[in-house]
Amino acid sequence: MRYISTRGGMPPQSFSAILLGGLAPDGGLVMPEVCPRLTQADLERLAPLPYAELAFEVIRLFVDDIPEADLKALVAKTYTAEVFGSADITPIKTLAPNLHLQQLSNGPTLAFKDMAMQLLGNLFEYVLARDDKEINIVGATSGDTGSAAEYAMRGKKGVNVFMLSPAGKMSPFQRAQMFSLQDANIHNIAVKSMFDACQDMVKAINNDAAFKQDYKIGAVNSINWGRVVAQICYYFKGYFAVAKTVGEPVDFCVPSGNFGNICAGHMARQMGLPIRRLIVATNENDVLDEFFSSGGYHPRGLDRTFETSSPSMDITKASNLERFVFDLLGRDAGKLSLLWKGIDAGIGFDLSADDFAKMREVYGFRSSRSTHQDRLDNIRSVFETYGVEIDPHTADGYKAAIEHRDANVAMVILETALPAKFEDTMLEAIGQKPQRPASLQNLEDLPQRFDVLEADVAALKAYLVERIKA
Ligand SMILES: *Cc1c(COP(=O)(O)O)cnc(C)c1O
């Protein structure tokens, strides 16, 4: 499998070459040249496999330059009961007939990002050692990406992590999780602005080709293709866990921000997994709900980005959407580049009526938005009805799932974080603090290590130069 850019300006590259990069050199996102297709017989063969074997069978279709035995060992070492808490890796909790939660948050940082990031840590270490290279990961996080990346990369040889986060905007738990890491290869940078400003700074670094090359800059934020590939696997696992026969349709509902998680669902569907609907759940930052319900994609500025109680979804410019729109437009890079010119000019774009219909009818997308009150109501209602605590992001997913639910079709809601990460909202919703794994009992009391920067690209460059040269 080789990789091309959504903007059409990159000669095909191997998996390892794009794994260590961020944006394609032409500013687009990388996509597989063709999407692998599985037959009914393939699906039946995969259905009974345990997680790591299933993941290997999916991932190998996207990797062209790592020997299969090595890849298999890397995947097996990643998805273990020791790291993810159970042999199932992503256990299903059934709430009601045809209504399921797929638990993706039992990794080291208690959010679904670990599912991809733990694999990336092992892939990076392997490829860097093989090619005798080093990489400096510069990323932006609104909470969960950063900690997942840092826990996956800490102590890994050849890797430094520089993680930007919006100062004061993460939950105390999220902050403590990241800032308490004392590993020498981990650098936390609190930026005096919102998440999107952090993301823009990372983009600016990546758009400076000379700087990127001189300082060996790479990325693990949600545009990284390796993450999407790793995420595709749990759609297969969830599908096989709830489908009574291989071939029947299943709906997935996904709490969404940067569109990375649900983009993997789109890929799984393109590969032939019988997903009927992909439901995009947003919070008050509803730019994606607007797109999927009207066909108008109009990313918003910082002045129109709200701080909400599902903070990992406080995103008003969804980077991975470009991957889906590329497919929607029949992989026409020229057409896509034109639309994204509209975005760079700050006006966004509106789909044609045909493309809008195709998005819903051919690709199966639906969407919803929720508010803080909805989250409180749904956390309480799920707790009272099923005795299950869900976190605020998963509550956004629950609301969307209920709105779009068809009683005859299995619905899988992706649980994207554990409630323990969001104590204040849980307390407000159900009057009690969520349980916390014993190992994280006194997390907030640990000494924290971080630096503060203005939302200024020059300041970030100076920071990196100082530390990478030294
Ligand atoms: C990152 C994150 C999301 C959003 O996922 P995207 O891939 O950015 O759409 C939702 N919930 C939680 C808890 C997250 O950490």
TrEMBL record:
Magnesium in keyword set: no
- List its EC numbers: 4.2.3.1
Describe the location of the Tryptophan synthase beta chain-like PALP domain by residue ranges: 97-334
One Pfam match, given by its short name, reads PALP
Report the residue ranges that make up the Threonine synthase N-terminal domain in this protein.
Answer: 2-79
The broad enzyme category this protein falls into is lyase
Q: Which GO molecular function annotations are given, in alphabetical order?
A: threonine synthase activity
- InterPro entries per UniProt: Thr_synth_N (IPR029144), Thr_synth_N_sf (IPR037158), Thr_synthase-like (IPR004450), Threonine_Synthase (IPR051166), TrpB-like_PALP (IPR001926), TrpB-like_PALP_sf (IPR036052)
Q: Which cofactor does it need?
A: pyridoxal 5'-phosphate
SUPFAM superfamilies to which the protein is assigned, alphabetical: Tryptophan synthase beta subunit-like PLP-dependent enzymes
State the CDD domains in the record: Thr-synth_2
**Keyword Electron transport attached:** no
Keyword annotations of the record: Lyase, Pyridoxal phosphate
Family membership noted in the UniProt record: Belongs to the threonine synthase family.
User: Which PANTHER family does the entry mention?
Assistant: THREONINE SYNTHASE FAMILY MEMBER, THREONINE SYNTHASE-LIKE 2
Q: Under what name is this protein listed?
A: Threonine synthase
The source organism is: Iodobacter arcticus
Lineage runs: Bacteria, Pseudomonadati, Pseudomonadota, Betaproteobacteria, Neisseriales
